[in-house]
Amino acid sequence: MTPESRIMGLKINPLTMDRTVKLIAERIENEEEYSCLPVYTPNAEIFMQARQDKNFLNILNSSWLTLPDGAGLKFASRLLPDIENFPARVAGCDLLRNLLAAAARRDFDIYFLGGKPGIAAEAARRAQKQHDGLEISGCHHGYLDRVDADRLLKRINGIKPDLLFVGMGAPRQERFIAAYRESLKVRVAVTVGGSFDVLSGRVNRAPVVLQKLYLEWLYRFLKEPARWRRILRLPRFMTLVLEESLRRRLKAN
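Above: the chain's sequence. Below: its structure in token form.
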């Protein structure tokens, strides 16, 4: 049974990267139907969005897997007294790379959806160069109106890929999967945020040392100062976690 925790109403499946990739790969190989199982990768910023939007929170909680992408959620598991510490941060960008490697080994069919025009195609080209035998059967940018979305749905359903990676940013990517979940003929759909920008070479990810120190947010802020409003959600999140931790400990005593 897949472990599950709750961070102030948000479902999280506390898994390691290896366990996550294994679960997804096994489900693809054993799933007879194209049931479009959603895998979401929220961080603290996305949590704060969901806290203000119940519909978005319900979408995140209706997933097959919801994984902690970001140091904030992992730290929250340490501070809240009734939650077992999350074993790892499963970042969307890292999950994408690991699943691409697994897909190349296991002959899974891939579709990239998201980013500005040309970004997904370049990400697909680079991914196939890095992984021999990787099959990416299609890609499309993430700027869709209803007509575009309906046409895209028919295109994807004609291909029936095993893995659909959706990189539109939150909450658009989660809302897209939720809206079309019943009609999308894919086995698993995974949200990956801005990972196509990184995979395509358009954006550099933070150095590994900053990733390990959970300072990737600082690197992104220094690169894009206009993100300051979004960065402010992080201290607000930590304040909420500290308040909730104190409340639960006082209640327990």
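The longest strand covers residues 109-114.
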